[in-house]
Amino acid sequence: MDPEEHTDSPSDQPNGPERRITFQLYEYWFGLVEEGGLPPLKSLTPADIAPYRNNMVLIDLRDPKSEPTLQVVGQLLLDDVGEGIPLSTISDIPRRTLLSRLTDHYMEVLGNKSPISFDAEFINLDDQKIYYRGIMLPFSDDGIKVNFILGAIRWISEDDMKKAAAEAALFEQDNTTQSTTETDTPAEETASLAPAAPTEEGSPTAPDNISAPDIPVDVSPSDQIPASLPHLREELEKCRSLVQGQSPADLRSRKALYETLGAVLDFHHLCQNNKDSYRQLLAEEDLKAQKRAPFTPALKLCFGRDYDKTRLTEYAATLSYAQKHNLTGADLPEFLETFPGGIKGCVQAERQGRHDGNNTPTALSDEESKKIIQNMPPLASFDVLIDDDTGNEEGNDLCLVLTRREGTRMDVVKILPQDKKILGPIIKKLIRDL
């Protein structure tokens, strides 16, 4: 397998520091979004997706009563599946293929109604270890319901990674030998003349571009040295990079959002400790400090002044609640993970605290928990026959369902009897994990 054929090569990369397929396609998809709704499939143009057509799959979900169908499958994905295998629906896809690794994520897109990106490794049908990175993008006819999902994936085998690394090392050795024979300049004089040229992130000479871990961003404030305006700008850019996401999935995932809010909390503290520089920064962005909503300007700086106002209000309430409990940005992600209801739970507790005059964390009631779950979008809908074990339709608004999973297919085995002792803790755990 030629790594140039399956990794991000310079010829198909846009200008800028990020050249990975997930960023390229996410930025393209995000540019199609209008007024917060999902973009329509007709907004795609063949020319724009041409660089990825051999690595793509288009899933059709327009018929809710039928299994999702495969409208388009890229040639490289077909080659990986093998000849003579008909591909019409999701269940036709053989396991241990790149196409299966890509389409396995379509239920996540349906549930989140947002892009999902991923990178991992697996052993394919030829017993090769494959490293891959992919993305799934939702499209809608009405801006709300997901009717199509466009997926794309790139990959490299472990053998090709080793070969590319060896070739890179040999190339570096040749260059070093050539430079020492062509110059008489002492090594200690040339060592500091110029830094080593960075490796192109998508090129075959940088095989670790597929599974390299993300480097955490440190945005903790300094208590010793007053921050200058350039320093505040630098910290702001770090927060904005977290908002944009290390990957499209990060942008939409709960964990990444919590980490981003933690960074914004630290940035806010830094700004409050350096108010003169903060005022200059706000003036540059045509924003003003708000006494009644102190977190809002910092959130607008990081997320953008046109970001959804409802979300900004929720984030501001969450940060206010965190500050009242003496939390730092490093503490916030774990706190939100364990706090009942996460962000929405904090918002409710903050509002309740303002009303009651205190901010003691309180657990959500059963009715409040049920209300949150009832507002969640369904992953799938179907009619069932009601029997004596499950009770009648009235009053049984929530129940436990036992399913059997086979790949992407879910078979409902039994609807379990309603038992508040069992159902209650499960609901509360689900709320904590939101």
Structural overview:
The chain has 434 residues and is of the alpha+beta class. It has three domains: 158 residues, 2-Layer Sandwich (Beta-Lactamase); 135 residues, no CATH class; 62 residues, no CATH class. The protein has 18 helices and seven strands. The strands form two sheets. It has a five-stranded antiparallel β-sheet with strand order 2-1-5-4-3, with helices on both faces. The longest helix is centred in the middle third of the chain and has 25 residues. The two termini are 41 Å apart. The N terminus is likely disordered. This is PAS domain-containing protein.
List its salient traits:
12% strand; 434 residues; PAS domain-containing protein; single chain; disordered N terminus; 7 strands; Beta-Lactamase; two-stranded antiparallel sheet
In short:
This is PAS domain-containing protein. This protein is an alpha+beta fold and 434 residues long.
Give the arrangement of secondary structure elements:
Layout: H1 3-6, H2 21-32, H3 46-49, E1 56-60, E2 69-73, H4 75-81, H5 98-103, H6 106-112, E3 116-123, E4 129-139, E5 148-157, H7 158-182, H8 187-190, H9 229-244, H10 248-252, H11 254-272, H12 275-284, H13 296-303, H14 309-324, H15 332-338, H16 342-356, H17 366-374, E6 401-406, E7 409-415, H18 420-432
Antiparallel strand pairs: 1-2, 1-5, 3-4, 4-5, 6-7
**Largest sheet, spatial ordering of strands:** 2-1-5-4-3
* Number of beta strands: 7
CATH architecture of the largest domain: 2-Layer Sandwich
Q: What is the subunit arrangement here?
A: single chain
The tally of domains stands at: 3
Strand content: 5-15%
Please give the alpha-carbon distance between the first and last residues: 41 Å
Shape: globular
Question: What name does the CATH topology of the largest domain carry?
Answer: Beta-Lactamase
CATH class of the largest domain: Alpha Beta
Rounded to an integer, what's the Rg over CA atoms? 26 Å
Give the full name of the CATH homologous superfamily of the largest domain: PAS domain
Helix content: 40-55%
User: What is the count of DSSP helices, taking H or I runs of 4+ residues?
Assistant: 18
Residue ranges: pLDDT <50 for 5 or more in a row?
Answer: 1-19, 174-226, 246-252, 358-362
List the secondary-structure elements in sequence, H or E.
Answer: HHHEEHHHEEEHHHHHHHHHHHEEH
Average pLDDT confidence is: 73
Class by alpha and beta content:
alpha+beta
